[in-house]
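Researcher: Next entry in the queue.
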Amino acid sequence: MPPLVFRKGLDLKHAVADMLADNYHSDIVEQIKADDFTYRSGRLTVRLAHEFGFCYGVDRAVDYAYQTRERFPDRHVFLTGEIIHNPHVNEKLRGMGIRFLSDPHESVERVGTSDVVILPAFGVTMAMLQQLEARACTLVDTTCGSVLNVWKNVRRYAEGGYTSVIHGKVWHEETQATASQAVQYGGAYVVVFDREETEVVCDYIRRGGGRDGFLQRFGKAASPGFDPERDLQRIGLANQTTMLMTESLEVGELIRRAMEERYGADGLGERYQAFDTICSATQDRQDAVVALLRDQPVDLMIVIGGYNSSNTANLARICAETRPTFHISEPDCLISADEIRHRRVGSKHETTSTGWLPNTPAVQVGLTSGASTPDNLVGAAIERLASFCQ
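Model: Structure for this entry, 390 residues:
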């Protein structure tokens, strides 16, 4: 029997609405929005980006997880891994008795036919999906619509004989899931992280040669049996939805130019395809923080979100170009007016800094949060900031 799959909720939205509000709503954030996204207390002024926090896809995924627990109170409920990249939200789900297959001592082999498994917002690989389907368990699919749009185009590339060049992080769950779609439909893929890696691909497109060196560099970021001489002749561009739009556009333009130089403008239509797969919510948050930095005289920026959240890290990168920037995972990282725990842009480790908050008669702090950060964390961070500035 094929598994039962819920893709449009479980008809319990109203039943879990109060619980979601209790866990993630913030009165202070709502008040700040009503006051032109500005908060003042003592010597402190906080300027909040006009787009921040939970996006539609994240809100929907968390909502479905709560509905699942409500619908199946007596069954084992699993998540394949983190539902979103926010430790606060994931711990809430663990507290509700939802088990994570990615945790130690958990595995797909523990899932039985009477169990329920939630698929996260960034999707799962085809291999994981097939394992779950073989176990005939009930599935609740929260995969974001923006991710599904990328998959649709990757499948289109594969079926048309195009290799997918995916701008993303090869270790990220979403990129792994997207790459598996290409393989499932008989296509090839290679993942590029940045301009440097893209230039390596472009050089091969233009001149060929150095096959072994190419495979040594991209062996873990390319489909099984990848042959650059064969598989870079026709290319379709895709991206991890949470990457910087400007960088995804640059990757596409570099590859387009390389294909044109190799095959000529007349042959480009047969050789290169690209569709808009940039997540609008990700872009809205990036645009909003750019506008804040342009229009408001903030002394520093605080960016709140999980350290493994790609879209949050990219917001921090944008801010760090023009302001001292502190990417924090939770309000408790704001230790005191002198001390802060944070992750520097480009680093993989949390550090502690001192002297971070200016001791001036007036201080203006810009604040934004990633698409997986709930409002209650934003509100709590603002309240801690206010306590430092009385």
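Model: The first strand starts at residue 5 and ends at 6.
Researcher: Noted, moving on.
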